[in-house]
């Protein structure tokens, strides 16, 4: 492999594949490399939730700076849903995007008060959310336990099939001329006066520009041009039940505890929310933690008692992104031609909007949303 291209994308997850799709569609010459297989990182292992609301365990427990970062990112979360809806019309095949609404449930008055404050903050940022309780909640979600006294409802939340979405993006990008290379790890990046030379396992790419879409490993890629990026890997796990008749009609999260629950198109119920898994630092092997599966599933059963009669089919782990809660977007000052497209932890939701904004910048257009707050300059590591 010894090629030349205008843009080299490093990383074939949802961010990289979306960037390839948008750039190639705009006539930009693109090559994407991944050290493994495209879509086999977090982007192919996630729970398929389309989030909008601030997640309590990150929003509540983080520092004041982290909380503000998440509030600053809300307008992008709102826009992300619109981008996914566009993609579901544009891509080949059904990506199983369904806007079913999301309920963040509360069991105590304290949790209700927290949600009400959170809803007010989110409404200020343009998010369509409101509180529901009593008969309204029972009618909306009869499957919820009596222990649930109320919820924050976000009608714009939903779910999608990430594997189908990645396949659709790759197909669309290839149709516009993008080239994909799997099993090629970026080992080094040399900067010339007006271009870059990327040294890969078994190959070399000369390119005018580089787009860093390496997700949890974006810091290692940025370090190759001397840039420090405050992103690190975070191992989490999810589980799925056997297929069953329609039971859970919304994306269900909890006001205080770690939970996301939804029923996907084939009838399986995906239970997750960000419970930790384990990674072996020497081999990078991932291990699902049984005690966390038990706690995660027990919580899901407390919220939806009918789940107790369903059998768990499988649990799996993946490596997510941990950062300050904001994406890293755009060209890096001082390194002309080097761009980042690194979403925050709700990276399936945010991957396409992040890639789209960076692609707009790379094609010399004004970005459809201001990305000033999301450049590398905003934060000390
Ligand atoms: C179990 C789990 C459940 C999740 N659930 C949800 C959810 O329901 N909703 C949601 O919004 N988000 C969810 N997420 C988060 C989301 O999946 C990720 O944030 C998102 O997929 C990150 O996308 P990415 O393209 O930035 O990175 P990735 O998908 O990790 O892709 C990065 C790619 O870069 C490649 N790479 C890295 N370094 C190099 C290199 N040096 N050279 C070449 N290639 C390289 C990797 O091989 C990888 O394929 C979940 C994550 C996990 C793990």
What does this structure look like?
- The chain has 381 residues and is α+β, with helices and mostly antiparallel strands.
- The protein folds into 2 domains: 2-44 and 163-231 and 324-378, FAD/NAD(P)-binding domain, CATH 3.50.50; 102-155 and 232-322, D-Amino Acid Oxidase, Chain A, domain 2 (2-Layer Sandwich), CATH 3.30.9.10.
- Helices cover 30% and strands 28% of the residues.
- It is built from 9 helices and 20 strands.
- It has helices at residues 14-25, 56-59, 64-90, 109-124, 134-140, 162-175, 218-223, 290-303, 347-362, and strands spanning 2-10, 30-34, 49-50, 102-106, 130-133, 150-154, 158-159, 179-182, 186-191, 196-200, 203-212, 232-241, 251-254, 260-263, 269-276, 278-279, 286-287, 312-322, 328-331, 338-342.
- The strands form 4 sheets. Strands 1, 2, 8, 9, 10, 11, 19 and 20 form an 8-stranded mixed beta sheet that branches.
- β1 (2-10), α1 and β2 (30-34) form a beta-alpha-beta unit.
- α1 (14-25) runs parallel beside α9 and α3 (64-90) packs across α9 (347-362).
- The radius of gyration is 21 Å and the shape is globular.
- The structure holds flavin-adenine dinucleotide.
- Flavin-adenine dinucleotide binds at residues 10-16, 33-36, 40-43, 45-49, 51, 185-186, 213-217, 221, 236-238, 272, 318-321, 342-343, 345-349, 351.
